[in-house]
Amino acid sequence: MTTVRTVIHDRRIEVLVPDDLADGTAVVLTIGTDVADDDAPISPEEIARVLAAMTRLQPLEIPEDVAADLDAWERRLNQRGIDRAEEDGEGEGEGATR
């Protein structure tokens, strides 16, 4: 797939066509900003590129005091979710209805 950037001037689309696209080449024009085809399958090359990048990642070093703060924040957040579920009647056992 080839991505071609273009600009509209005087209500016309002006495209600088790459040299490798011959006359008669079918193209699809999508109007928008940075549109990606999220439903398209990932190519083997892209999978290999991502896996290679993942192997280069270094472990995140979190100081102990920061880790303790993060753990405390996570506990508070979890408790808040539990409290809200109980307020909404969702935490009253299986089959609970409102």
Write the layout of secondary structure elements.
Blueprint: E1 6-9, E2 12-15, H1 44-55, H2 64-87
Protein model, in words:
Helix content is 37%, strand content 8%. The protein is mainly α and 98 residues long. A two-stranded antiparallel ribbon has the order 1-2. The mean pLDDT is 81. It has helices at 44-55, 64-87; strands at 6-9, 12-15. It contains two helices and two strands.
| Shape annotation | elongated
Task: Report the count of strand segments.
Answer: 2
Helix content: 25-40%
Report the structural category.
mainly alpha
Number of helices, where a helix is a run of at least 4 consecutive DSSP H or I residues: 2
Span of the ends, CA to CA:
53 Å
Radius of gyration: 26 Å
Provide the descriptors you would attach to this structure in a database record.
2 helices, 98 residues, single chain, elongated, mainly alpha
Quickly describe the structure:
With 98 residues, the chain is mainly alpha-helical. Helices cover 37% and strands 8% of the residues.
